[in-house]
Every structure is written in C-alpha cells, then in structure tokens.
Amino acid sequence: MKATVAVIRCENYEIENVRSAVTRGIGLLGGISAFAQAHEKILLKPNLLAGDRPDKLVTPYPTVFQAVAEIFKAAGADMYYGDSSGMGSLERVARQAGIKEVADSLGIRPADFRTIVPVSFPGALLAKQLRLAAGALGADGIISIAKMKTHGFTRITGAVKNQFGCLPGLQKAEFHVKMPDVYDFSRVLVDINNYLKPRLRLFIMDGIAAMEGNGPRGGEPSAMKVLLFSIDPVALDAVFCRLIDLDPEFVPTMKFGEESGLGVYKPDEIQIIGDDIEPLINKNFRVVRRPPERFASARSFPTFLKNRISPRPVINYERCVNCGNCVQMCPVAPKAVGRPAGNKDQKPVYDYKRCIRCYCCQEICPEKAIAIKIPLLGRLIH
Ligand code: SF4
Ligand code: SF4
C-alpha cells in the first residue's frame, strides 16, 4: 500500500488561512476522528531548536501550532507540548518562539522533557538502548510539527529528524560524540521514530516560509507556501525533497527508514493528495545537493588528510558577537571550538583536529556567523 502525503498550499501565516489549510490537510487524511479521541493524551512536538522569534523561521510558526492545537483540543484531547531544545529550558524557548503564549491560551501544558527514562529497543538498527524524555513516552498520540529547513549535517531537518528532540538535552550531544558518522546518526534517528509509536502519529511540516541555505538556524527565508501532512515521516520528508528538487538518496534517513519499515520514500510508493505539487516545486532552493560526507568520521582516514578534505565549520568574525553558544554546544572534550587560552574577551577559534563535524556549533549560532565550508582539496575531490 502506498503512503499518503497531503500537500496543502497556504499563502501566509494569517491564522484564518492556516486554520483552513490544517483542517483541509487533516481532513484529507481521514479527518480529526481518525486521529483523536476524547480524553486521549496527545503530545504536540514542535521543533524548538532555539528560542528565536517566529520571524526568524527557526521554529514552526505559532499560528501553525495554534491551528493544529485547536483542532485536537476541539476533539476533546488532553494536550501537552514538548521538545528538548538545544539552548534553554522548554518553557523559555517556547516563550521566545511564540509557542508558549498560544499553548497557555489554549490550556496546553508543557510536558516533562527533563526526566530521562531508559528504554531497551532490541529491534533497533543501532541504538538498542535509548534514554528518552519522560514527556515523549506514555502519550496516546504524538503530533510532530517540523519546520521545513536545511541542515548542514543531514541535508534537511524534517519529520524524521524532529523526533531527535525526544532525547533530553545532553543526550543529543552525547549521541553526536558516540556516533559522529552521519549515517550512524541517521540510523539512530530512525530508531527513535520506530520506538516512539503510540496509537496515533501524525507528522506535519510547516513550509509556508521555509529556511534555505545555512540552516537549521542561520539560513535565509524561502516562501514555499506549503504545509505537509502524513502518518509516514519518511514519505513526508521525501515530498519535502521533491519540493526542493533534492534527490532523497542524499538524505540517509530515507533508506534506513525504508529498511526498518518506518516508511517509504520512492515516488511510486507515495500518493500525493491535496494541491498540485508541480507549481510549488522550487528548483532553486539552496540546499547541498550531494550525499553527506563520511570523511570526517572515518577512523581509517588519516587526520591530516581528513582535515584537508572534509567540510568544516568556519566563523565569520564580522558577524560573531562572542556569545559563546558554539563553545557551550560543542560536544567533544576537550572542546573543538573555544576561546584562545580561555580568554572570554576573545572570539572562539577551531581546533579542527578535534572536531567531529557534527555542526552543532553551526546549528546553534544565533548570528549566522558559522558556515560550513569545504577546503580547497576537498572541493577538488568533491
Ligand atoms: S555562536 Fe556564533 S556568535 Fe556566538 S561566539 Fe560562536 S560564532 Fe560567535
Ligand atoms: S567544533 Fe562544531 S562541528 Fe566541531 S565538534 Fe564542536 S560543535 Fe561539532
């Protein structure tokens, strides 16, 4: 049977437009009664990477969260929301992203994303033991609200990757250290998705104003004018790829997702319903159109060569405000980015010999000061 993805055009973030688009998208997938029953516990899981204002497009727009929350609330669901942000507590980040105000107005509580619950997953592709946020477990349903964005490490950050936020804060950094290879990391993303399978799952992507270029935090806006809906996160991400003319084979979660039974990604396995996708395709969307590199983490690769060919984070010192977020986020010990001699007055510098190329620093920089660049030798090889 084919996976179904609803593609709904939506011109802007006006609440009436978004409400109508969300109602239509869920309606095409069977209607709210297919997803919610009265008194069921439903977790809304927006991508709350960082506490940036809604117009920065780092997080799903508040009206998208609102429209989704309203429709489930009206069905009598017991709602809460949560995510494990890269920077700051759930409530602080949600407030800064405009999500908390909406949640408070609808009586939707924050979930417990601090308490860690260890779980075993013998059927995992790689992560046989997971330590998940308590708030991500025990729900009757999870509604993932992803943002349509690029990602330096995994090419895109979409529906499958959004569930990475179900690992509490430091866990995420630990995984990057344990699994610096993007292909291993992608297997773990698939494992998390396969473990978190409550009675209902719905994946929604906010692509009304997407982020292209140096995502997931430092990119530029791209008006894609679309919302996506599916119960298959792999298929939804595959449609995202199609919308930006990116070969889904360049996104490692696709193959692993299909292999593990999480979902499907090939065009003939996906039924697209709703609006015509062709006029929504943006072939000029700025995304890296090649497979993610393995060089950085390949242990067999000599370090000196690795550093001359692997893409690496580079700081633009004219933009850098010396906030220290990149230093704080770097998961390796000793840090691969830090102030010279620990002097906080000096802007951070990299030690590429230690860097595992997880790009957490690039992901979290609030000033768009870090870009991923390929050294000259690497460019020649690529
Ligand atoms: S996170 Fe960005 S702005 Fe902050 S110190 Fe690092 S490079 Fe500079
Ligand atoms: S310097 Fe940046 S890319 Fe390198 S390990 Fe640290 S956070 Fe990851």
What would you say this structure looks like, in words?
- The chain is an alpha/beta fold and 382 residues long.
- It has two domains: 3-280, Rossmann fold, CATH 3.40.50; 297-381, Alpha-Beta Plaits.
- 29% of the residues lie in helices and 21% in strands.
- The protein has 13 helices and 16 strands.
- The chain has helices spanning 15-28, 62-74, 90-96, 99-105, 159-162, 169-178, 182-195, 233-243, 252-259, 303-309, 325-329, 360-364, 376-381; strands at residues 3-9, 41-46, 78-81, 109-110, 116-120, 129-133, 141-151, 155-157, 200-212, 220-222, 226-230, 270-274, 312-315, 337-338, 349-350, 370-373.
- Strands 1, 2, 3, 4, 7, 8, 9, 10, 11 and 12 form a ten-stranded mixed β-sheet that branches. A two-stranded antiparallel sheet has the order 5-6.
- The protein is globular and about 60 Å long.
- The mean pLDDT is 93.
- The protein binds iron/sulfur cluster (2 copies).
- Residues 315, 320-326, 348, 365, 367, 369-370 line the site of one iron/sulfur cluster.
